[in-house]
């Protein structure tokens, strides 16, 4: 029988599926991550881990848990895992691709719309008792219709985002590690250099993963290249942005606004300058947060675990490059 550790509370129906394979220990908290020391201690005798991005899967963890067969990561990204170390120890790593692309793109679109029409500012304006009369340019925003939207990262989420733009008659620019001819033919997207994308776009939407190439990509020089009325949206990873440079760009008027579902250090500290700026929207990494999608993510983790327990390759195995 397997020994299984689940590092966040999951619905009982999925826990019962896991219990068919062995003994399940679950951290019974929905929002609070498992403390590092408790995680290391609990993992010692486990053969299976079902984890989130909050858990750091490094050499220390893998050394302390010599019986591991699979670590199922409840995310598409896996920058919390040392893939090389896991592969050397014959530990299978799996993720949850495909199931959250549409939901994450939907949240990104909502953020772009909120930033473009200054919804956060407008809500505060009313709640603070400032709304005394109508004015022709009161909280005037920026049209998405017939705008130019630049997508940095034309993977599944980028393509899902681009599909939503079709109804707005927007011009879609994109920059990616390689050209995506399918997106060009189906969505009318135009491949451009990164510099052209940031210089010409009304909205710049980052959907890219965290890699050596993308980390710190959006920095002071890039924000200076953007239009003064540009809005930056990030639903990729927080470390793609140099936040000090973004704050400076927002304060100085280099760009008009931003909307972020990810930040460099999560959860964001309450004294972070971004939280003081009226033209910055920050949400708590809820890109995939619908009930259906979260169920599908856990279901995918369970299926990957079942594959390995049955002696088959995990259907969503991630390999070191």
TrEMBL record:
Primary gene name: ghrB_1
Lineage: Bacteria, Bacillati, Bacillota, Bacilli, Bacillales
Segments forming domain D-isomer specific 2-hydroxyacid dehydrogenase NAD-binding: 109-287
PROSITE patterns: D_2_HYDROXYACID_DH_3
Keyword line: Oxidoreductase
GO cellular component, as recorded: cytosol
SUPFAM superfamilies: Formate/glycerate dehydrogenase catalytic domain-like (SSF52283), NAD(P)-binding Rossmann-fold domains (SSF51735)
Protein name stated in the entry: D-glycerate dehydrogenase
D-isomer specific 2-hydroxyacid dehydrogenase catalytic domain segment(s): 4-318
Family: Belongs to the D-isomer specific 2-hydroxyacid dehydrogenase family.
Highest taxon listed in the record's lineage: Bacteria
Enzyme Commission number(s) from the entry: 1.1.1.26, 1.1.1.79
GO MF term set: glyoxylate reductase (NADH) activity; glyoxylate reductase (NADPH) activity; hydroxypyruvate reductase [NAD(P)H] activity; NAD binding
One Pfam family named in its UniProt record: 2-Hacid_dh_C
Tagged with keyword Acyltransferase: no
């Amino acid at each position: 029988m397997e020994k299984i550790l689940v590092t966040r509370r999951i619905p009982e129906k999925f826990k019962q599926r896991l219990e068919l394979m062995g003994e399940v220990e679950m951290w019974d908290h929905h929002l609070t991550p498992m403390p590092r020391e408790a995680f290391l201690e609990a993992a010692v005798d486990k053969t299976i881990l079902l984890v989130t991005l909050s858990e750091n899967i490094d050499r220390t963890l893998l050394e302390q848990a010599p019986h591991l067969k699979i670590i199922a990561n409840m995310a598409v990204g896996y920058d919390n895992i040392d893939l090389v170390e896991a592969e050397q120890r014959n530990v299978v790593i799996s993720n949850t691709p495909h199931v959250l692309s549409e939901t994450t793109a939907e949240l990104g679109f909502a953020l772009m719309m909120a930033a473009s029409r200054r919804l956060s500012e407008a809500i505060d304006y009313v709640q603070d008792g400032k709304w005394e009369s109508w004015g022709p340019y009161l909280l005037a925003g920026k049209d998405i219709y017939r705008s130019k939207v630049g997508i940095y990262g034309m993977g599944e989420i980028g393509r899902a985002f681009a599909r939503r733009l079709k109804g707005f008659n927007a011009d879609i620019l994109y920059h990616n590690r390689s050209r995506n001819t399918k997106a060009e033919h189906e969505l009318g997207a135009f491949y451009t250099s990164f510099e052209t994308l940031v210089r010409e776009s009304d909205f710049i939407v980052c959907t890219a993963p965290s890699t050596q190439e993308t980390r710190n990509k959006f920095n002071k020089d890039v924000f200076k290249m953007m239009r003064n009325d540009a809005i930056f949206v990030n639903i990729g990873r927080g470390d793609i942005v140099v936040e000090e440079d973004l704050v400076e760009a927002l304060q100085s008027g280099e760009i008009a606004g931003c909307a972020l579902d990810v930040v460099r250090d999560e959860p964001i500290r309450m004294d972070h300058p971004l939280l003081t700026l009226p033209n910055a929207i920050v949400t708590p990494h809820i890109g995939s947060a619908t009930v259906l999608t979260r169920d599908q993510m856990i279901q995918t983790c369970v299926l990957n675990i079942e594959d390995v327990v049955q002696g088959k390759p995990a259907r969503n195995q991630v390999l070191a490059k």
